[in-house]
Write a structure and sequence with these properties.
The chain is an alpha/beta fold and 333 residues long. 36% of the residues lie in helices and 14% in strands.
């Protein structure tokens, strides 16, 4: 496993990290969660990424029990705040009251005094950016988080935060990024790089599409991620026939490079110096080890060209931001 510096922080994180969306939030049994987590430690993975809203606390609770058995200095723990945490629609967002409430709840579930990285899961257009920045900065000042990040913020929202807080408050950005989802390359990557902010990308395997298991013209396999009704939005975006056909064209490219398709897809995102880590999910320990093996794999220029040729004009550039996150930036009057 290789490690990279996380933005302007003093943290080093594994190139491959373990995420917990759709799996450890209740999608798999507790023993599988434990087995996958232990496999991550065995593979040299040090960055564990979760969120308060995953299973409304279930993911954090699961990892709190498992990670507490490991020395706190042996892993980098990241969680997020924004999503609705109860049936009350007001129980969400990035107001100072919510941030203060949710960080304490997350720490209790995670059985720790601090998280290494606290991330705004989305941008809250209902709260002035000045208030969001102040609330998150207070979490760091109180020692409850070492560093701050954000996820799926637009370039305008990122710049607004930098204008208020300066370039040093945030150290990470977490966008969706894969060889078929490249929108962050044009603006988010360069803006963040200019301000010492690293990328921790999610869905580098396009939520399983880049494993090649979804075949064009064939039914979705039972038990797979896209068999779930919760994946309807992503299904519409990623499960289109032209994309599935292009993915099949990638398989011989990977084989020609002596790789399997997931390894090539992970190596493709890791070729970018803007990245600190690529978040992967797993429901079995062998998946963890397979994903971790992509760290350090270098793709030749010929392979990268062959990937582009196989994909043609397929790469998707639309954003996956939630509707409220697409709106403008609210400043205090």
């Amino acid at each position: 496993m290789r490690y990279r510096k996380l933005g302007s922080s003093d943290l080093e994180v594994s190139e491959i990290s373990l995420g917990s969306w759709l799996t450890f939030s209740g999608g798999i049994e507790a023993e599988q969660t434990r087995a996958c987590t232990e496999a991550a430690f065995d593979a040299g993975i040090t960055l564990f990424d979760t969120a308060n809203v995953y299973g409304r606390g279930a993911s954090e609770t699961a990892w709190g029990e498992i990670l507490s058995k490991h020395p706190r200095s042996s892993y980098v723990l990241a969680t997020k705040v924004f999503g609705q945490m109860s049936d009350d629609p007001a129980d969400q967002g990035l107001s100072p009251e919510q941030v203060a409430k949710q960080i304490d709840a997350s720490l209790a579930r995670l059985q720790t005094d601090f998280v290494d990285l606290y991330q705004a899961h989305r941008f809250d257009v209902k709260v002035p950016i000045e208030d969001t920045v102040e609330a998150l900065a207070k979490v760091v000042e109180q020692g409850k988080a070492r560093y701050l990040g954000f996820s799926e913020w637009t370039p305008e929202q990122i710049q607004a935060a930098i204008d208020v807080a300066g370039p040093d408050l945030f150290v990470s950005s977490q966008p969706q990024y894969s060889m078929i989802w490249r929108s962050p390359e044009s603006e988010v990557f360069p803006l963040c790089a200019a301000n010492g902010i690293s990328q921790i990308v999610w869905s580098p395997l396009a939520q399983g599409v880049l494993t090649g298991k979804y075949k064009p013209g064939e039914p979705i396999p039972e038990g797979s991620r896209f068999a779930s009704d919760t994946m309807n939005v992503s299904k519409e975006q990623l499960m289109r026939e032209p994309i599935l056909q292009a993915v099949q064209r990638l398989i011989p490219v990977a084989e020609g490079a002596g790789l399997d398709l997931p390894t090539m897809a992970l190596a493709w995102v890791l070729r970018r110096s803007e990245l600190a880590s690529a978040i992967t999910g797993a429901s079995r320990p062998e998946q963890v080890h397979s994903n971790a093996a992509a760290s350090g794999v270098e793709l030749s220029d010929d392979v990268i060209s062959a990937i582009d040729n196989a994909l043609g004009d397929i790469p998707v550039t639309e954003t996956t931001l939630a509707p409220n996150a697409k709106a403008g930036v609210l400043h205090r009057a």
